[in-house]
Amino acid sequence: MKHLKIKVIGKVQGVWFRASTKDKADELGLHGYVKNEPDGSVFIEVSGAEKLIEDFLKWVKKGPELARVDELIVENNDKEYYDGFVIKR
Predict the structure, then answer these.
(1) Is 36 a residue of the active site?
(2) Is 21 part of any domain?
């Protein structure tokens, strides 16, 4: 299992990024959460099989149609999630 913290920088709020991220995570069977940050970025913590996390990261680099991802900051994380994938408000 792989566990990551991801900060997504760009035009990522107000473009359905969180909902689309949840849909993609659910499709891949990943666990964790996504939330908007006060600085305009989106923060994701995610857990899952390494191959599925790689597929997820490829998607996050592009995001949904209306988004523009300028930068990803990805760090390994110790925490593992088991309870699905949620949007935090």
Answers:
(1) yes
(2) yes
Cα 36 to Cα 53: distance, rounded to the nearest angstrom: 20
Q: What is the CA angle 70-17-6, rounded to 5?
A: 60
Compute how many other C-beta atoms are within 10 angstroms of the C-beta atom of residue 38: 5
CATH of the domain at 46: 3.30.70.100
Count up the domains in the chain and report the number: 1
Residue 18 falls in the annotated catalytic set: yes
Check 18, 68, 76, 77 and give the catalytic one.
18
Query: What's the predicted TM-score (pTM) here?
Result: 0.95
> Would residue 39 count as lying in a domain?
yes
pLDDT over 80 at 33, yes or no: yes
Amino acid (1-letter code) at residue 3: H
Question: Residue 15 belongs to what domain range?
Answer: 2-80
Q: Is the pLDDT of residue 66 over 90?
A: yes
Residue 37 lies in a domain: yes
Torsion of CA 1, 83, 55, 70, to 10 degrees: -110
